[in-house]
Structures are given as C-alpha cells and as structure tokens.
Input
Amino acid sequence: MARSSVVRFLVSAARTTAAAGGAACLGTGLGYRRTLRTAARLMVAKLLSAEELFAKKSFQDFLSNTEKQYRHALDAINSDDHERDLRDQRALVSRLAPLMQVIHELHIKHQEVTETEALLKEEDPALRELAELEKQSCLQDIKALRQTVLTLLVPEDEADQSDLVLEVTAGVGGQEAMLFTAELFDMYENFAQHNGWSFDVLEHMTRGVRHASASISGPASYKRMKFEGGVHRVQRIPKTEKQGRIHTSTMTVAVLPQPTEISLTINPKDLKIETKRASGAGGQHVNTTDSAVRVVHLPTGVAAECQQERSQLKNKEKAMQSLRAKLYSMKLEEETSKRYHQRKVQIGTRGRSEKIRTYNFPQDRITDHRISLTVHDVRRFLLGEDLLGHMNSALQDFSDQEALMELFEGARQADPSGV
Output
C-alpha cells in the first residue's frame, strides 16, 4: 500500500466529515500532496523521537479521529442499507486497514504492559523477574510499532522514485565560483558512484564550470538527492589571493525529477529543434559539424541543449531528457502552488544571502542552514561519500517530521470539532 494513498484518504475523509457536520458519510475530497520543501528552511526546530511525537495531544487526537473514520466506514459497509453507494467507504477501509492493524497491535501491547506492571507487585521474586522481562519485551515492541505507524503516515513525494537531472550553475564570485561549481559537480558524480547510480553527463564545459548538467539514474536517486537543490556558499582563500583574504562565492544546484512517459507527454508540434556547431574543447568534431542540439518548448519557452556527444542524434536525446525534466519540475511546482500560496523555488537569485549550505574552508566546517546542522572535514565531505549521505539522511528525517506536523495541522483545520 502506498503511504501517500493513506494520507490522501485521511485528510479528505476529515474534510468531508467536517463538511457533513460530523456525519459518518466519508468522501474522497481533495487529495493530500506533500510539498517540496527542498530549499526553504524547515519549520521543525528539533527532531522529535517517536515517543515524543506520540506524547503530543495533536497526534493522539489525529489517531483517534482516524480510528473513528475507519469504524464509521466499516459500519456503513456492514449496514443493511444496500441502496447507498459505498465505493468511497470500501476504498477508505482498504487503504487504512494496514495502519489500523498496527494501531490495534499497539493497543494490545499497551494492555500487556499494564498487566505485567500488576505482576511486578507480587511477592514472588521469580515472578517479578519474569514480569520485568516481559515488560521490557513489550516496551521494545511498542517502540517498533510506533515507528511503523509513523512510517505509514509519512507521505511520499510523487517523484520520490524518479530518476533525476542535476544542474549546477556558477553564481556570485567569478572564477572562484566556477571552480567551486566544478568541485561540487565532481562531488555529486562521486556520490552517484558511491550509491551505485549511473551518472551520464549531459552538458559540461572544461576550464572551470559556469554551467553543467547530468542525468542520474538509480534506486531512490531523486529521494536521496532532492535536498541538494538551492544556493551553496563557499568561504575560502583562493589560490590566486596573495594577501590571505577570505572570498565568498556561490553556486546553484537544481535537482529535477525525471518524468516517465506516462507522467508527462510532450506534443512534437510544440518543439523547436535547432542545430549548431559545437564550441569549446573536444577534438576534430568541434566547429566542423552541426552536432550541437538546442530544443525549445514553444508554449513555455523552456529550452535545453546538448553538445556533449559527437552524434547529433545522441545530443538530441540528451537535450530532450533535460527538457522533459525541466517541464516536469514546472508541473510539480504548479500543482504544489495550488495548495501553498508561496512557491518553493530551488534557484532563487543566486545571491549570497539565499544560501542553504555553507562550506567554510578556514573553519573546516559545512553548515546546512535549513536544519542548523554542522559537520566538519570539508575535504572528506567533497568526496561525496558517507558525510554527504549523513547530511541528506538528516534532512530527510526533518522533512518527514515536518510533513507529519503539516498532516496533523491540516486534519485539525479540516475538522476543528475533533469529530
């Protein structure tokens, strides 16, 4: 069962119940879709444990209301009223059944803890010892079941299982910004190799990088990479700096989910395809054949180009791959903005103040400003291995908890009566 399906039905059921004045009629309503808070500072100030989340009244109210909705749907299905359309109720029961099963097991374990605590008062030491062992076993089971409940509730992004197109662009800082952009591009290539993903360069200019792009494919590649999107700032002394002054430069990372043929269809009539001679270093084919390809999507003005390959056909395929990712990202942003008033855009203005992460070489630290997390050893971080993976895991944990908080708040607003 997809976790996003559970969330959709929970919130839509709450909305319909509230609109019906607390009646048991549950409808499909509008679906819940998780927003892409990749570049914005996350609202969760502290990462809470499963125990702390379960102790929150808003969370307990949410679970209680969910159980009520589930029982209402079951009662409607088991009623004698055969004239009613029960498709929505059956769908709700089907999607909530795994969650309800875990919650039921959780209730049983809590009851067992209560029973074993009574046995701890017995006079027989052997019996008390057995009761203590049983209690500890139940507490471990409760901990695992709580985590399972949270896992089922956290909504997945629609694009989480997608491949991606990575784009890096130099920002403020001139030559130093271009050098840092090249270093991060290499870091992401190493990160892809570290995770067993394929890394196919779509566009890359030598002698410093002003702009480069690549296609990354592999299990959970977009899910693991999506939090890299935004403005990255570097503070260090350039090799050409003779007075030892620290320079600040920026570069921008865009992480675009790669759509499938089903999720995005492009009309060939909407495309303008141009060919030109490749420029830059690259051998005899440069400036001798029209191998470079530029594709423009006329309705939106979005363009993509590629001159990486010697073959015009291969460059066209790679340009189309990049274009599809850009259009798909725009589609996701448009859907997100329907629910949220302010769009979450990764690129920004590339200014120094719009940073998501700072790489400070003199202090040998990397700080992610969205979750105020600092790690040390810049050189090791730029290898694109474990340190970068740990940073992304921490961002995912905070994002998951933020999504849960939004879910609870959305359900509360949809049904303020608590019915």
User: Anything to note?
Assistant: The first strand starts at residue 163 and ends at 170. Residues 87-119 form the longest helix (33 residues). Residues 341 and 400 are 21 Å apart (CA to CA).
